[in-house]
Amino acid sequence: ENAIPQPPPIPLDFEDNSDVIALRSAIAILQMQARNAGSDVRRLRDVKERALRDPEAFLGARERGEVRVRDGGFGPSYESEDEDEDEDSEREVKGGDNVKMDGEGRDGSAEKKGDEWLLPRMQNVVRCPPINWSQYAVVGESLDKLHKDQLERPVEGTPQRIGADGNLIYGGEGGRREHVGVYAPYDPMRDKVETKKKNPKR
């Protein structure tokens, strides 16, 4: 019998393919979040050093509610500083005592009074978009498990909310259904059998 030859593979269009666009978007957001993470670490270091230099000012700011997590959208978790900014940004007042570091944002404007104690918020790191890798002849058990798990437990969207400045704030990707796991045989060293206590006889 003569076998029917397989059709030639269709060339992949990297400009219009939806999976490629989704991956590029995810990579771009991950790169942005990586830069924000570096800025957040520097911000936490500056706040820590400022609090150690002047504990009374830190306690006073905490009582006034100035030590708080910055509220914002999907962008930077804090107005990150320029990478080439000199770390020795402490300014001396009359008398020679170092009190505050007036950080500058990306626009070069001085830090507002009361914002020097703002802390970066936690980032919701983006995940790999659900892609059926087998259609691209990409063989890998881990990728197949990832795709199957994404189909069985899709990420629930979180609606946007309006911030204090009137702008819409990204609500994140939301939660996922809890992974139940697989059944395992009884292990007397790890598993405990819960027994109900009998009521004492009266």
Automatic annotation (TrEMBL):
Which residue intervals are annotated with compositional bias (Acidic residues) in the record?
79-90
Specify where the region named Disordered lies, as residue ranges: 69-114, 155-175
List compositional bias (Basic and acidic residues) regions by residue number: 91-114
Q: Which branch of life, at top level?
A: Eukaryota
Identification of the protein by name? Uncharacterized protein
Species whose genome carries this gene:
Lachnellula willkommii
Q: What is the lineage of its organism?
A: Eukaryota, Fungi, Dikarya, Ascomycota, Pezizomycotina
